[in-house]
Amino acid sequence: MIEDMYRVRTPNSAKLYAEACRVLPAGLTHDSRALSPYPIYVSRAEGPRKWDVDGNEYVDYYGGHGALLLGHCHPRVVEAIRDQAALGTHPGAAHELEVRWGRLVQRLVPSAERVRFTNSGSEASHLALRLARAYTGKSKIVRFVGHFHGWHDQVASGSMSHFDGSVPAGIPASLAAESILLPADDPAAAVQTLQARDDIAAVILEPSGASWGQVPLPPGFLAALRGATHRHGALLVFDEVITGFRWAPGGAQARYGILPDLTVLAKILAGGLPGGAVAGAKEILDQLDPVAARAAGHEKIGHQGTFNANPLCAAAAVATLSIVGNSDACARAEATTQHLREGLRGILVEEDVPWSVYGEASGFVIFPNPERLPLDPASFDPLRLGFKGLKGSRDPELVNRLRIAMLARGVDLNGAPGGLVSAAHGPREVAQTLEAFRDALRALKVAGAMRAAVSAA
Ligand SMILES: Cc1ncc(COP(=O)(O)O)c(C=O)c1O
Question: What integer pLDDT is reported at residue 451 of this predicted model?
Answer without folding.
Answer: 54
